[in-house]
Amino acid sequence: MTIAGLLCTGLLFGADFVICTVDDFQDYPAVEYADGQYYVFWTDRRFYSLNERFAIYGARVSQDGHVIDQNGKLIFCDSTAEAVGVAYDMSNFFVVARNHC
């Protein structure tokens, strides 16, 4: 999955860069900026062939574009995960995904 070089707050400029290099489908990225770094969440199908489940992954990215969590960390795994969205209330993240209905 690739993220555009200019992220939501405009602090990071430059070329697109890779967040996740795992084979299979990664899509629907959602980005939030907090505490001096970016948090990127996305839909991931890396385990779909094993259990027909989608997952939500997240990764931290520094202001200069260094991906801290290469290929992300598993946040949630279930049969539903599309159109990821994220909100931040200055202390907690709230990550949502649409189901297939």
Walk me through what this model shows.
The chain has 101 residues and is mostly beta strands. It has one domain (2-98). 4% of the residues lie in helices and 49% in strands. The protein contains one helix and eight strands. It has one helix at 48-51; strands at residues 2-3, 17-18, 26-34, 37-44, 54-62, 73-78, 82-88, 93-98. A four-stranded antiparallel sheet has the order 3-4-5-6, with no helix packed on it. It has a two-stranded antiparallel sheet with strand order 1-2. The chain has a two-stranded antiparallel ribbon with strand order 7-8. A hairpin with a 4-residue loop joins β7 and β8. Mean pLDDT is 80; it is low at 4-11.
Please specify the SSE layout and strand pairing:
Elements: E1 2-3, E2 17-18, E3 26-34, E4 37-44, H1 48-51, E5 54-62, E6 73-78, E7 82-88, E8 93-98
Antiparallel strand pairs: 1-2, 3-4, 4-5, 5-6, 7-8
